[in-house]
Automatic annotation (TrEMBL):
Residues 647-662 have a biased composition (Gly residues). GO terms for molecular function: enzyme regulator activity. Residues 679-688 have a biased composition (Pro residues). Residues 539-593, 641-688 are annotated as: Disordered. This is 26S proteasome regulatory subunit RPN2 C-terminal domain-containing protein. GO terms for biological process: proteasome-mediated ubiquitin-dependent protein catabolic process; regulation of protein catabolic process. GO terms for cellular component: nucleus; proteasome regulatory particle, base subcomplex; proteasome storage granule. Pfam families: HEAT_2, PC_rep, RPN2_C. Residues 485-646 form the 26S proteasome regulatory subunit RPN2 C-terminal domain. The keyword rRNA-binding does not apply. The keyword Repeat applies. The lineage of its organism: Eukaryota, Viridiplantae, Chlorophyta, core chlorophytes, Ulvophyceae. Gene3D superfamilies: Leucine-rich Repeat Variant.
Amino acid sequence: GSGAQAEAKETADPEVQALQAKYQKLKDVISGKTSIMLYLEFLYNHNHADLQILKNIKSVVDSRQSVCHSATVLANALMHCGTTVDTFLRDNLDWLSRATNWAKFSATAGLGVIHKGHLANGRALMAPYLPQNGASGSPYSEGGALYALGLIHANHGHDIQEFLCTSLRNTNNEVIQQGASLGLGIAALGSENAEIFEDVKNVLYTDSAVAGEAAGIALGLLQVGSATEKTTEMLAYAHDTQHEKIIRGIALGLALIMYGREEGAETLIEQMTRDQDPILRYGGMYVIGLAYRGTDNNAAIQKLLHFAVSDVSDDVRRAAVICLGFVLMGVPEQCPRIVSLLSESYNPHVRYGAAMAVGIACAGTGNRDAIDIITPLLSDAVDFVRQGALIAMALVLIQQPESQVGGFRKQLDKFINDKTEEIMCRMGAIMAAGIIDAGGRNVTVGLRSHSGHFRRTSVIGLAVFTQYWYWYPLSYFLSLAFQPTALIALNADMLLPKLQVACDCPKSLYAYPEPITQEASTQAAKLPTAVLSTTVKVRERQRKKEQEKLLKEGKKLEPGTSKGDEPAESLAMETDEAPEGQGQESTSKGPEEAEFHMLDNPARVVPSQEKLVRFPDDCRWQSLKPGALAGIVVLRDLRPGEPVELHGGGSEGVSDGKGGAQGSALVESQDKEEEEPLPPEPFEYVPP
């Protein structure tokens, strides 16, 4: 192979080169590199995360409370997931340095979430935290950095596996072993690599509680969905060890191994659900949930319901209810009905599970019934139930039109600013604030691909995320479940032509929420449930008058003038519900509030908006395969002779890719990366 390649380079035969370029392009597409690069570029250029929200959280959270401090670091990581923007951390280094021990581990791992998909510079970014010239710093930041490298290379880990393996072999420190195990599990997810499996298993057998827990999960990640016969060996070890953490790690690992196996997991389910050890029964619930994920299998649902009401261990009952969410993922509209009685259980663990189940099954749908079930739990008497409800609500409302989310943001503010509120609950509110604005407000929880298949990485990310209950650093797994809500249209050369698509709804409906101003930060939107102070009421009244006046004139508030995000919201709602006649009337007066608007390529298209997006009638481009315009769409050119205007990195609405205002070396290096495999001259693409 390599000799032939060298010859080809010497001969420099243009045909051979063109062919090589074609293969390279194909390889990049299949290995996922192309899409990772495109999404990275998109999330960087379209980042709308609001730093003011983080500043407000930081100002009210006592940094001596490590729980809330860590939650804030997590919220920042999720808000900037995949955007490579770490401004908040750079601006608050002294505040960040208050994180010690495991909090430091988590904070370093958070960098991996922020730089997720940044394959070119992943190692360089984490270098400061890794041992340099053999001298190692803190084991916590080093372990966190290895975990971060796994997160950066999620779904594309072959370049980093070797390095993580070496790091794992060369250490006896349980903290570093934990980071390396988790990192390897994510980077080699589902690779079933025997060599790595042995390395991780050796860590498991050192019988160190902390490292063993991560090793158990990592074994599951490596062998995900393979139903390997090594499960018997793992189960035997779970019975031998004295450490609950290791048993729990193995229990979850076994569930991951049985992912999607349905009946193939029955023997293991029987063994685990009948075990005397509640932790293994807990794992058994996850085996049912993941083996039957999205199948809404009747027997599985009945089994989970049975354990949810009858098991003696609260943990098992909670897990049973949570796993209903995984089984019902395929029919989200059914989930609220099935867990509605459980959400009124006397047992707080079951109520927490009900909230989470709905959050998981209905993630990103904005389903009304789901919201109705979670809402009463937001004012539950028990702190951790409120925590679960806040996180679940954020999962359900992610990427919903701001008119539906405004009220919830208000509630989050209330929880976060209330110094008397329980820590558990404030932690949930801070995490929820990160989830609702995840990925610079450009990602959703993508449990299914556009073709309707379940995304394995996303489902597993959510499953491991729910383990944050026992081990906070695992909450960073949620980043694996995020999928950019982007429409990226490519031509045959995998480049972005400049084009516009039409979206059949008023622009304000799916607009990004307004950035909060400092004084409006505490009161941003009107909410029926929160009790408002008199000043706010007066302000509301004035605003309503202003709005009605504007509506009569058929104008729309300029984004600059609105305080908070209220006017745009109610406007969106009114135009949305306006009867036909009115809508047309307003379009004739003010072109601003037209019934449709144009989006530039690439654009943010949220899931509920997909069915409204179409190519304009006179467009020279058409998508190659029918279906919703979402995700990465390859185009067919209807007028192939004409010159194509491409996105050269910078265009309006996109920060200049090549050293513009905020162009930074980062994007330049990406651009170089992307330009490498291009063919020497454009070749004709003949559709089959």
